[in-house]
Amino acid sequence: MTPEFYRAKLIERLAAKGIHDERVLEAMGRVPRHEFVDAAWDLRKSYEDTALPIGRGQTISQPFVVALMTQALLEGREARHVLEVGTGCGYQTAVLAELVDRVYSVERIRALNQSAERRLRGLNYMRVYLNHGDGHEGWAQQAPFDGIIVTAAAAQVPEALLTQLAPGGRLVIPVGAQDGQQLCRFTLKPDGGLSREILAGVSFVPMLAEKID
Fold first, then answer.
1. How does 144-155 read in b/e, with b if 16+ C-beta sit within 10 Å?
2. pLDDT band at residue 180, thresholds of 50, 70 and 90?
3. φ, ψ for residue 99, nearest 5 deg
4. Taking the model in full, what pTM does it have?
5. 195 with 182: CB under 8 angstroms?
6. How far, in Å, CA of 140 to CA of 107, rounded?
7. Is residue 105 annotated as part of the catalytic site, yes or no?
8. What is the per-residue pLDDT across 60-106, written as a single tens digit (0 to 9) for each?
9. Of residues 46, 61, 105, 115, which has the active-site annotation?
10. Summary count for the chain: helices (H), strands (E)
11. Most-buried pick from 3, 31, 59, 157 (CB within 10 A)?
C-alpha cells in the first residue's frame, strides 16, 4: 500500500471523529506523516491515529489532536501569522504551513529543533521559521500572532503568550496536570478581554522551561 492510500484512510477516520474543516482535512492529506516518525515504524503504523515516540521523551501527536487543534485555531477565520510552541518532529508545523502564510515555531530541545528544520526544509516548507528557546516566552520579536498553538501541557497559561496575540487572535493550549488536562481556546476580544472555551480532555507531555543543548 502507498502513503497516499494510508493518508486517505486517516482522513476518513478524522472526518468520522468530527473533524469538519475541509481545509484542515485537505492539509493533513498532503503532509507525509511517515516522514516525521522513526524509520522503524512501517507505513501503516505511521498513519494510525495514535501518538508515537520521537525520542528525548517526546511524541508526535495523535493525528486527531493535531487536526482538532488546527481546526480550533482556524475555524471560521483566516490566520496568516502563527506561532507554534513545541516544534517536536515538525509534523504540526508542516500542517500549519499548509494553511497559513508564515509559521514561527519554538522548541526547547536543540536536537529536535535541528532535525525538524532539516526535515521541513527537505520537504520544501520554506515559510517556516524555527527557534531554539523557552516556549513560555513565545517569540516576542515576531509578535503579534493571529494564532498560537502549544503542543505541551501548561500548568498555567503563560502570560507572555497572551500578550503576543493580535486582536481577535486565538491561543489553543492544553492546560492542567498530567491526570486532568483540558484543551482550551482563548480568544483576545476587541476590548482587550479574553474568552475561554474548553474543547476536549487531552493528554500531553508537560510544558517545561529548561532549554536543552
1. ebbbbbbbbbbe
2. confident
3. -120, -20
4. 0.94
5. no
6. 15
7. no
8. 899 999 999 999 999 988 889 999 999 999 999 999 999 999 999 99
9. 61
10. 7, 9
11. 31
